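Hi everyone, sorry if this is the wrong subforum. Our group has a chain we'd like a structural model of before ordering constructs, and none of us has done structure prediction before. Sequence below.
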Amino acid sequence: MAIADNHAHRHEFDLGDREFRFLATFLSRETGIVLSAHKRQMVCGRLVKRLRALGMRDFSEYCDMLNGPGAHAEIEHLVNAITTNITNFFREPHHFDHLRREVLEPRLTQIPRRPRLRIWSAGCSSGQEPYCIAMMVAETLKPPEAWDALILATDIDTNMLSRGAAGIYTTETAEQIPETYRKRFVRRIANDPDHVQMADELRRLIRFKRLNLHETWPMKGSFDAIFCRNVAIYFDKPTQRNLFNRYADMLVIGGMLYLGHAESLIGLTDRFEVSDKTVYRRIR
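Answer:
Right subforum, don't worry. Here is the predicted structure as tokens:
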């Protein structure tokens, strides 16, 4: 009897060709995320919990909801389930060295002094990247409160944004932070030896906001640097081209764009020049 029930349950939540094509088209249209055919089982596995939470019997019913007036309220839950959030402190450390050397340190000797600094961590996941950026800012621009410095951290996944805003990570995760920075910027939590919290000094520098890169951006001012690492790999070439040109529009001339190790601007835009490994400077 139990075997028969399990078989029926698996069959109930099978993701058919028609439903997968609908979900792939829906996500591409709403977020720019491209789901190739080999991700079908991954999508099925990640959405099963959502179907259960909604009391739905199969993916056909779920697709019908997305095709109706309930779609807007469900998009956030769908994206939270589908997106992968893999990040570490000081991932690709040469980017943070470059940020300090090419963006932050020149501010110290610049005449006239420009105290305004804006850096955007686009696709910030659970917050490790913007906190690393904040460590660079706080360590280089002393005292940081003397500068009009702000790091915008955005992601489409609200669960990840909540974790980032709290600034609480496992003690093991925090071991990725170099000791010098760990001693200055990481705080122990009373009665919780398994977790630590980022210092208030860092948290004051960061604003966590939900943003769908595929939609209109509300920001008005320009940025000195943008980190968008391992995000564009989920988009097709036309979407990448549009995204990188929009980033150019948001950067000051000479501003830096940091991409993931598997990403490149080659053949997509002529508005940047190479500054370093997977780092590009806006030139027009």
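For your construct planning: The chain has twelve helices and ten strands. The beta strands are 116-122, 148-155, 168-170, 186-189, 192-198, 206-210, 223-228, 251-259, 272-276, 279-282.
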